[in-house]
Amino acid sequence: EIVLTQSPGTLSLSPGERATLSCRASQGVSSTYLAWYQQKPGQAPRLLIFGASNRATGIPIRFSGSGSGTDFTLTINRLEPEDFAVYYCQQFGSSPWTFGQGTKVEIK
Amino acid sequence: QVHLQESGPGLVKPSETLSLTCTVSGASIRGYYWNWIRQAPGKGLEWLGYIYYTGSTNYNPSLKSRVTISVDTSKNQFSLKLSSVTPADTAVYYCARGNYNFPFDYWGQGTLVTVSS
Fold first, then answer.
1. Where residue A96 falls among pLDDT bands split at 50, 70, 90?
2. In terms of DSSP bridges, do strands A10-13 and A103-107 run parallel, antiparallel, or are they unpaired?
3. Measured between alpha carbons, how far is B116 from B80 in angstroms, rounded to an integer?
4. Which residue of B51, B65, B102, B112 is the best one to mutate when testing the A interface, meaning the one whose CB has the most A CBs within 10 A?
5. Farthest-apart Cα atoms in chain A, separation
6. Dist CA B45 CA A102 (whole Å)
7. What are the C-alpha distances in Å from A20 to residues B3, B12, B30?
8. Angle at CA of residue A58, ends A56 and A106, nearest 5°
9. B15-44, pLDDT tens digit by residue?
10. Most exposed among A21, A34, B42, B45, judged by the fewest C-beta atoms under 10 Å?
11. pLDDT digits 0-9 by tens, A74-95
12. Is B53 left (phi over 0), alpha (psi -120 to 50) or beta?
């Protein structure tokens, strides 16, 4: 099983700042099979990024993904109030499909 | 617009079988992978398994053969059964759509299932 480790666990930032979230895999993941989701309290996760770096439909350009192999990054430029949430990375290239434990982006 | 809706009992007794159905509207169930994911209170996401519209399945081995996913293309629905439940199976259960080489783009709102006597 591929274990995804996200860091940091919590990120305390102010609106307008940049958030950099890390997702490290225990073994290599093809970029095709790496995704990022956003989850707000009481809501289902929402797909943000697919293929490691492609924004899903309707996702603002301030969200960007990068990385390859075992190291992936989600960057949120100029945080908006609605961006404070929990973010998960996911791999679906190797069964069982797995998620990271999440990074909470909170208002400082 | 694609919409997924979970339905089923919100309370299940220990040792019994949890049964949920996901109804898909706004899109055909054909051509996609249909997934179940759960989230224990205050915890992260756990993928349980998927079914392809043809009926082929892939389950998370962590569930030790307790999980069964089935599909009814005539009703545009797919279902989850989880047997021999314990309080550790208490979670919000989500259904979600995936595709070949593509992650989960549509999710249901989730349904809380509590395992308790």
1. very high
2. parallel
3. 19
4. B102
5. 38
6. 9
7. 32, 41, 38
8. 85
9. 999 999 999 999 999 999 999 999 999 999
10. B42
11. 999 999 999 999 999 999 999 9
12. alpha
Q: What is the DSSP code string of B39-82?
A: E-TT--EEEEEEEETTS-EEE-GGGTT-EEEEEETTTTEEEEEE
Residue whose entry in the numeric block shows the structure tokens 């299940």: B12
The tens digit of pLDDT for each residue in A27-60 reads: 999 999 999 999 999 999 999 999 999 999 999 9
Answer whether B67's CB lies under 8 Å from B61's CB.
no
Establish if A100 touches chain B: CB-CB under 8 angstroms.
yes
Q: Least CA distance to B93: which residue of chain A?
A: A44
- pLDDT class for A103, splitting at 50, 70, 90? very high
Angle at B97 between CA B96 and CA B100, to 5 degrees: 140
Report strand pairing: B111-115 vs B11-12.
parallel
Best residue in B22, B45, B101, B102 to probe A by mutation, most A CBs within 10 Å?
A: B45
Q: Which of A22, A24, A25, A27 is nearest to A10 (CA)?
A: A22
Q: Which residues contact B99 (CB under 8 A, 6 or more apart)?
A: B31, B32, B33, B105
A46 interfaces chain B, CB cutoff of 8 Å: yes
